[in-house]
Amino acid sequence: MAALLYIHGFLSSPFSFKAQQTKQWLAVHHPDIEFHCPQLPPYPAQAQQLLESLVERLLPGSVYLMGSSLGGFWATWLAEKYDLRAVLINPAVRPQEFMPAYLEVDLKSYHTDDSYRLSARHIDEIIAVDVPVMRPHNYWLLVQTGDETLDYRQALEKYHGCKQLIEEGGDHSFQGFERYLDDCIIFLKHPAFF
Questions:
Q1: Higher confidence at residue 142 or residue 106?
Q2: Sign of CA dihedral 38, 93, 157, 52
């Protein structure tokens, strides 16, 4: 059975709007694709280990990646490590640049009661998995220029050889994402169509 691994953003969770939207849409339109969205810790080495073990459990079946915000960063690392296809939604490109603002402060998850505290070593952990795009054909980048959290131009630069969809306006959540779910699955399942 094929599997879609949806990777949520920083301090988000499987209860995020896009994750739930994707899960429900797949259940109706593609019950042949198993949905996975693990709760990721904000600590990079732990997130890395969790994602690696999940992908390795799902292989050698078809594994498709979808990542939003910091989840897009993780999807890129997995896509390069395992040669997988990925849809990236307003992805974080250089999280090590915004992480210093979150160091040594109490952080709370958006959807749970979990709290966290990042330290300088976590920046080193994220730098260790910051990989270049070596297989541009494996990616579809979706960005909205109104993203108030991340500079969409960084994503355009990093994924310059990849399929890209750039929408004017919108925001970091990527308004109207559900409009593209069908095309996302076609891209992930049928490389020849793109």
A1: 142
A2: negative
102 pLDDT tier (thresholds 50, 70, 90): confident
Least confident stretch, 60-64, 111-115, 126-130, 171-175: 111-115
The whole-angstrom separation of Cα 15 and Cα 12 is: 8
- Cα separation, 85 vs 192, whole angstroms: 12
What does the radius of gyration of the chain's CA atoms come to, in whole angstroms? 16
Domain ranges of the chain: 2-193
In contact, 178 and 21? CB cutoff 8 Å = yes
CATH fold of 2-193 reads Rossmann fold (3.40.50)
Taking alpha carbons only, the member of 22, 42, 3 closest to residue 174 is 22
CA end-to-end span of the chain: 23
